[in-house]
Write a structure and sequence with these properties.
single chain; about 140 residues; mainly alpha; 2 domains; two-stranded antiparallel sheet; 5 helices
Length: about 140
């Protein structure tokens, strides 16, 4: 179980939205709520009231999700791979310049374009964990 970053109620680990207050757990919090001040949120692990900017809970030591985090990196990487995969732009975006340069060197063959299209589709179809495990490092074959 984890705790809502807005109201502090216990929610399911996989919950994206709090069943008590209805707040998206990846959203940036504005304003106060109950005991929570404007610059505070609840730890997702222990429910302790912490500063909104805290990356680690001082009470339990668990890393906190960054406010506003989402799968936008995954979507951006997938779209870049489909549109600019010919030039390896998605490899540069994902932090793998070596593969990006290889794609760039061979773009004229059409092979990087085909690979970019396939990678883009696979990236967009992957769930968040699979994306992090296989594609976030820029490698087509995974880690």
């Amino acid at each position: 179980m984890k705790y809502c970053l807005n109201c502090g109620e216990e929610i399911a680990d996989q919950a994206d939205v709090c069943t008590e207050c209805g707040v998206d757990q990846t959203t940036t919090l504005d304003g106060a709520h109950g005991d929570r001040g404007r610059d505070e949120r609840y730890c997702v692990s222990c429910g302790e009231l912490i500063y909104k900017q805290a990356t680690i809970c001082p009470e339990c030591g668990v890393e906190q999700p960054s406010p506003g985090s989402s799968d936008s990196d995954q979507v951006a990487a997938g779209v870049i791979a489909i549109l600019l995969g010919w030039f390896g732009a998605h490899k540069f975006y994902q932090g793998n310049p070596k593969l990006g340069v290889i794609y760039l060197c061979f773009f004229w063959t059409g092979i990087p374009g085909l690979l970019g299209l396939v990678e883009g589709i696979l990236i967009l179809a992957a769930d968040e964990d699979e994306y992090e495990r296989k594609y976030a490092d820029g490698s087509f074959l995974g880690r």
